[in-house]
Design goal:
By secondary structure, this protein is of the alpha+beta class. The protein folds into 4 domains: 146 residues, Rossmann fold; 59 residues; 31 residues; 108 residues, Helix Hairpins (Orthogonal Bundle). The protein is 57% helix and 14% strand. It contains 10 helices and 8 strands. Strands 2-1-3-4-5-6 form a 6-stranded antiparallel β-sheet. The chain has a two-stranded antiparallel sheet with strand order 7-8. The longest helix is centred in the C-terminal third of the chain and has 62 residues. Keywords: Coiled coil. This is AAA family ATPase. It holds the Pfam family AAA_23.
């Protein structure tokens, strides 16, 4: 269980005033009338005190007080107006994912029997609700109020004398609760210390193992490792330098000239191969175009052949009227009917021409295909 103050903030008209607290012991010191007691009283007010002393400087320049504090691992922020004592307070929880305070809720001021009060909610986070001390309710601000001592009490030599606690039984009981919290924190700290000791023991074992290995490797210390590392780097640089020199010498000799000629020859062959590939692509595209043209001729021939077959079928019969234009056959000489005036000889000639053109296309296609196959074989050889 952890209860830590983080920041006290006064929201000013022109600027903000902040006091930051740190984990561990915090002390506030300074000359008289510099605001030391005001800091403690404003913290007490933020936690639910009915009112606060009216400081002129604060009243003229500030409007609200904010207090950020931890309960366990959760960070909370209280915001309360400085002048409106009876207004509810605003409590927010810090969202570590969004990195801002969210989940705002308004709570009543220190009405202990009310579950919607600020004191009840904060005590529930500490599992200290429904406590009765000396016949009175226990509030969250009691934890803070009795956790600090005024200057007059510090000067009292009998401050730790239990006979003085009889005058204020609530103070004694509150101190007992605070001490229980510290005992709990101390237990957590002892457990953490135990874990750290075990971790340290493991690290010591690893350290001894590494030290023994370094002894076996004749490495005395870190400086020795650095020296050897520098020596190895220097040797590597010498080796790389020699390799570069060998390369340069090879290029200067006759073997180097042969290598250069071979590189030029390979480059030329690559360029020729690239040109041949481009030609092959062009020829393949041309063959594809011939194939499309052949298909078109074939389709045209099929259409005309179907027309001829239809005309031949019609010519088997004698008609008084044309089945196409429905006029008497005797009037066809002056008519524009394509069926009866169609010249069959012309159609046959057109079909033959198309067939010849198709055969020529097929021959050209086969010729180009054979040429491509032969050239590819030569390249592969």
């Amino acid at each position: 269980m952890k209860l830590l103050l983080k920041t006290l903030r006064l929201i000013g008209v022109r600027k903000k005033y902040e006091v930051h607290f740190h984990k561990g012991l915090n002390y506030i010191s300074g000359p008289t009338s510099t605001g030391k007691t005001a800091i403690l009283e404003l913290i007490d007010y933020a936690f639910g005190k009915t009112n606060h002393k009216s400081y002129i400087e604060i009243g003229e320049s500030c409007t609200d007080v904010e207090l950020e504090f931890y309960i366990s691992e959760n960070l909370y922020k209280i915001k309360r107006p400085l002048s409106a004592f009876k207004e509810p307070v605003l409590l927010q929880t810090y969202d570590s994912v969004k990195e801002k305070f969210t989940q705002a809720r308004t709570l009543e001021i220190d009405i202990l029997s009310n579950e919607k009060s600020l004191s009840y909610l904060l005590l529930s986070k500490l599992n200290l609700t429904n406590l009765i001390i000396r016949g009175g309710d226990f509030s969250f601000r009691d934890l803070f109020k009795f956790s600090y001592l005024k200057q007059t009490n510090i000067d009292n030599e009998n401050i730790l004398n239990e006979q003085n606690w009889a005058l204020n039984g609530k103070e004694k009981a509150t101190f007992e609760i605070i001490l229980d919290i510290y005992d709990s924190l101390l237990g957590d700290l002892q457990q953490s210390l135990k874990i750290e000791k075990e971790s340290l023991k493991v690290k010591e074992i690893r350290y001894e193992a590494v030290r023994e290995f370094l002894k076996t490797a004749e490495v005395e210390n870190y400086e020795t490792v650095q020296v050897k590392s520098v020596e190895i780097d220097s040797k590597l640089e010498d080796i790389n330098s020699k390799i570069e020199n060998y390369k340069s010498d090879i290029l200067k000799t006759e073997v180097g000239n042969d290598v250069n000629e071979l590189i030029v020859l390979i480059s030329d062959q690559k360029e020729k191969l690239s040109n041949l590939r481009n030609k092959f692509l062009d020829q393949e595209q041309y063959i594809q175009k011939l194939q499309l043209l052949e298909n078109q001729y074939f389709a045209d021939i099929e259409k005309i052949s179907e027309q001829i077959a239809g005309i031949k079928a019609i010519n088997k019969y004698e008609y008084l009227y044309c089945p196409n234009c429905l006029r008497p056959i005797s009037l066809h000489e002056e008519s524009s009917c394509l069926l009866c005036h169609q010249n069959m000889d012309d159609i046959v000639i057109e079909i033959n021409d198309l067939k010849k053109e198709r055969k020529n296309l097929q021959k050209r296609k086969m010729s180009f295909t054979l040429i491509l196959i032969q050239k590819k074989k030569k390249i592969l050889e």
